[in-house]
TrEMBL record:
One of its GO terms (molecular function) is ATP binding. SMART domains: AAA (SM00382). InterPro entries: AAA+_ATPase (IPR003593), ABC_transporter-like_ATP-bd (IPR003439), ABC_Transporter_VariousFunc (IPR051782), P-loop_NTPase (IPR027417). Keywords: ATP-binding, Nucleotide-binding, Transport. It holds the Pfam family ABC_tran. This is ABC transporter ATP-binding protein. The keyword Nucleotide-binding applies. Residues 3-194 form the ABC transporter domain.
Length: 194
């Protein structure tokens, strides 16, 4: 197992969001996390990413380089409004200490795949274009473990098909929070948080 979660708890003020959550996440496959709104799915992912702290419980990562090999799409946007797609991706590449030539290849690949204007400011993108740029950010360093929170929100059917057909790799882990039932067909495992 890649991640073991035991007795995980998280509250915000007086509201319990995660109550004694227990499950394991394997090293590869398409794993869906589903549940009603407000059950703590996004909170769980932000805890796994260490963006926020848990109150109690244990999360064990079996890979010492887990964070280096992971890409996270959380419900928080981290791209910069006044930078272009190209400049945002170059910045992310430099933060991840990627070779400039490799970053340029990835920018060209995803810009073409998603039909994104390369030089236009991120703030001028439509919601769907912003989502594609965020997905590119999570994939630019070719991570082994991908964690996405509602990745297909604001995307048209053609873009979703491109992702399902050309990006998903059976040798990687995709941990996806979703309400989309059509993804059940490609899932290796479906976890329910209630």
């Amino acid at each position: 197992m890649l991640i073991e979660i035991k007795n995980l708890n998280k509250s915000f003020k007086n509201r319990v969001v995660l109550d004694n959550v227990n499950f394991d996440i394997p090293e590869k496959g398409i794993i869906l996390l589903k549940g009603k709104n407000g059950t703590g799915k996004s909170t769980l992912l932000t805890i796994i990413s260490k963006f926020i702290k848990k109150d109690s419980g244990l999360i064990t990562y079996s890979d010492d380089r887990f964070f280096e090999k992971s890409g996270f799409l959380l419900d928080v946007n981290i791209l910069i409004d006044d930078l272009s797609f190209e400049d945002n991706m170059q910045l992310i590449g430099s933060i991840l200490k990627m070779e400039k030539v490799e970053v340029e290849k990835k920018i060209a690949f995803y810009q073409n795949l998603f039909s994104l204007p390369r030089k236009e400011f991120y703030k001028n993108y439509s919601l769907g274009m912003k989502r594609k740029a965020e997905l590119t950010r999570t994939l630019i360093n070719n991570p082994q473990y991908i964690f996405w929170d509602e990745p297909f929100n604001s995307l048209d059917q053609e873009s979703v098909k491109i992702i399902l057909d050309q990006i998903l790799d059976k040798n990687k882990l995709y941990f996806i929070i979703t309400h989309e039932d059509y993804l059940d067909e490609i899932a290796h495992e479906i976890l329910i948080l209630d």
